[in-house]
Amino acid sequence: MSDRLYIFDTTLRDGEQSPGCSMNIDEKMRVAHALAALGVDIIEAGFPIASPGDFEAVYRIASEVEGPHIAGLARASARDIERAAEAVKPAGDRGRIHTFIATSPIHMQAKLRMTPEQVLERAVDAVRLARSLVPEVEFSAEDAGRSKMDFLCRIVEGAIAAGARVINIPDTVGYMTPDEFGERIRTLIERVPNSDQAIFSVHCHNDLGLAVANSLAAVEYGARQVECTINGLGERAGNASLEEIVMILRTRTDRYDIETGIDTKRIVPTSKLVSQITGMPVQPNKAIVGANAFAHESGIHQDGMLKHQKTYEIMTPESVGWNTNRMVLGKHSGRAALRARYEALGVELDAERLNDVFERFKVLADKKKDIFDEDLLAILSEETEVDIERVKLVSLHAASGTGDTPVAAVELDIEGETHKATAEGDGPVDAAFKAIKSLVEPNGQLLLYSVNAITSGTDAQGEVTVRLKDGERIVNGQGSDTDIVVASAKALISALNKLPNMHAREVHAQYSGV
Ligand code: KIV
Ligand code: ZN
Predict the structure, then answer these.
(1) What ligand has the least distance to the C-alpha of 172?
(2) Alpha-carbon distance 448 to 196, whole Å?
C-alpha cells in the first residue's frame, strides 16, 4: 500500500504575494475551480484579515468550490483568527484555519519583540481559539528553518496539545539544504511526544533554488503534506512548484512509494491559466510546464526520440496535459462543444456566461481558423473583466512603415463618454500607449510589457501583459488579439481599469491633432 501525500496549494495566498501577481475576485474564483479540478487536497484561499477583498475571496471560495478543504491564513491573534473563521465557515467540515507565528531568534527579537516563552504562549492560545471555531487547525512555526530545535520541539508539542492537527514547518527564507531540512523533520517527528497526533507539513521557499529538493527530503523523513504553488509562484523567488513535486513522485515510483490525488493531465492547462491571469510568464525551460520542457532540438536527440520515445523522455508530454489540448474548435463548432472543452479545462459556465463567451468565440473564430485551449482561456480573461471596465477600447488605427513616423489614433469609451486622441511614437505600440495614456489619469508607470504568441502560426493570437505601477500599487493587465497592437492596447486598458480612481483626463491637447 502506498502512502498518501496531501497537496496544499497556496497559489492564491503565497503565490498572490509575488510582486505584480495580485488577482481580482473573479480571477481567484477561476483559479480555485481549476485547482479543485486538478485535485489538490487543500486550497489556501487567502489571508482574510488582510483586506475586505481578501476576506470576500476566501468566503466565496469556501462557499462555491467543492472538493478540497479551504484554508484561511491568520496570524496568532484573536482578530485574525476570528476573521479567518468567518471566512472559511461556508466550507463546513472542510474549513481550516492556518495560524502562524515566527519562532526563529531573529524574527522573535527583531520583528515580534517577544521572548520565546511569550511566543509559545501566544501560539498555544491561538491554536486553542482556532480549534474552538473551526474543525481543522494548522499551525506554522514561521522561519522554522532557522529556529532552535529545542524550542521548535516545545512549540510543536504545545500546538498539538492545543488541538492543531497539521504542523507546518516552513523554510520561510529558503535557507535550508535538503539533508538539514529532512533531518529537522525526522527529529521533530521522533522527539515531539505527541507527534503521532498530527500530520507534518512543509512549506519551502526557493531563495537558493532548493524548495522542491527540500520538500522532497522532508517527505522522505515523514512529512505528509507539502505546501506548494502552480508554476512555483510565491514571495521573492517563490515556493516549491506543485507540478515538479507531483511529477517527481509519479515518475520515480521506484524511490517514492507515495501517491497524490492530482490529475496530472490538468497540470499544463492549470499552469497556463495561472500564468495568463497573473501575467507571470513561465520560463520556456521550466520543468514540466515550460514551452521547451518536451522539445527536442539536437539531431542526436531527435534521432533517439524517433527510435524510441524513452530515449530522451522520462514522462510523456500527454501525461501532464501537453498536446492533449489540441482539440480543434473552429467557426462551425457549437455551444455544446465549447462548454465541453471549458469543462475539460476546469471551467464551469452557466447558460448566461456561456452565451457571452460563445459570442467572443465566434468573433475570434472568424479571424483564426483553429481555436486552441490557450485561445479559450484568453477569451475568458477578457470576459471576466467586463464588469469592472470603466474604460473600453472602441477603435484603434495604427500606421507604421519604414521611414514613416508611427502614429496611432484611439477612441475610448470612458464611463459612457467617447474620448479620442492621436499620438506619435517610436513604434505603433508606443504610439497607441501614448494616445491611450493621454486620455486617462492616473495612468501609471510602465514596469513590464511582454508579448507571447499563445499558439503557433502567423494567425496566432498575441497575448500581451502590461504591468503598471501607481504609487504603491502594482497591477497587471492582459489583452489578446490576432493583431499585436490591438492586443497591447487591450492589455494597457485592462491594467488601467485596475487602478483605483482612474478617470478621464481633462486636458490632453498635447497629443491631439497630430
Ligand atoms: O513562508 C512562510 O513562512 C509562510 C507562512 C505564513 C507559512 O508563508
Ligand atoms: Zn511562504
Answers:
(1) 1
(2) 49
Kind plus residue range of the DSSP H or E element containing 150: helix 149-161
Find cell 526520440 and name the residue: 305
Distance 99 CA to ligand 1 centre (A): 10
- Predicted confidence at residue 348, as pLDDT, reads 81
pTM of the shown model = 0.80
The alpha carbon of 210 and the centre of ligand 2 are apart by a number of angstroms equal to: 14
Over the chain (514 residues), the average pLDDT of each successive run of 10 is 90 90 89 97 98 96 98 98 98 98 98 98 98 98 98 98 98 98 98 98 98 98 98 97 98 96 96 89 92 77 75 90 68 85 81 90 84 80 63 95 94 94 96 96 89 73 86 81 93 88 72 43
pLDDT of 280-297, one tens digit each?
889 889 999 998 898 776
Ligand 1, atom 5: nearest CA belongs to which residue?
142
Q: Among 363, 381, 399, give the residue marking a domain's end.
A: 381
**321 Rama sector, left if φ>0, alpha if ψ -120 to 50, beta otherwise:** left
Backbone torsions φ then ψ of 447, nearest 5 degrees: -100, -30
Q: Which atom of ligand 1 is nearest to the CA of 143?
A: 3
Q: Ligand 1 pocket test: pick from 17, 100, 143 the residue with the most ligand atoms within 8 Å of its Cβ.
A: 100
Together in a domain, 224 and 341: no
Q: Give the domain range for residue 312.
A: 299-381
Residue 290 belongs to some domain of the structure: no
Q: What tens digit of pLDDT does each residue of 197-230 get?
A: 999 999 999 999 999 999 999 999 999 999 999 9
Distance CA 436, CA 311 (A): 52
**Model pLDDT for residues 101-155, shown as the tens digit of each residue:** 999 999 999 999 999 999 999 999 999 999 999 999 999 999 999 999 999 999 9
Nine cell digits for residue 85: 473563521
- For strands 6-9 and 391-399, give the pairing: unpaired
Residue that finishes a domain, picked among 323, 354, 381: 381
Q: Answer yes or no: do 90 and 210 share one domain.
A: yes
294, part of any domain = no
Task: Give 326's DSSP letter.
Answer: -
The verdict on 334 and 453 lying in the same domain is no
Measured in Å, residue 434 CA sits from the centre of ligand 2 at: 39
Q: In this structure, are 480 and 410 located in the same domain?
A: yes
Same domain membership, residue 146 and residue 227: yes
CATH of the domain at 30: 3.20.20.70
Looking at the fold, whether 181 and 49 belong to one and the same domain comes out as yes
Nine-digit cell string for 403: 521611414
- Testing ligand 1's pocket by substitution, the residue of 140, 200, 227 carrying the most ligand atoms inside 8 A of its CB is 140
| Shortest-distance atom of ligand 1 to CA 10 | 8
- Asked if 193 and 157 touch (Cβ cutoff 8 Å), the reply is yes
CATH code of residue 506? 3.30.160.270
The answer to whether residues 146 and 186 belong to one domain is: yes
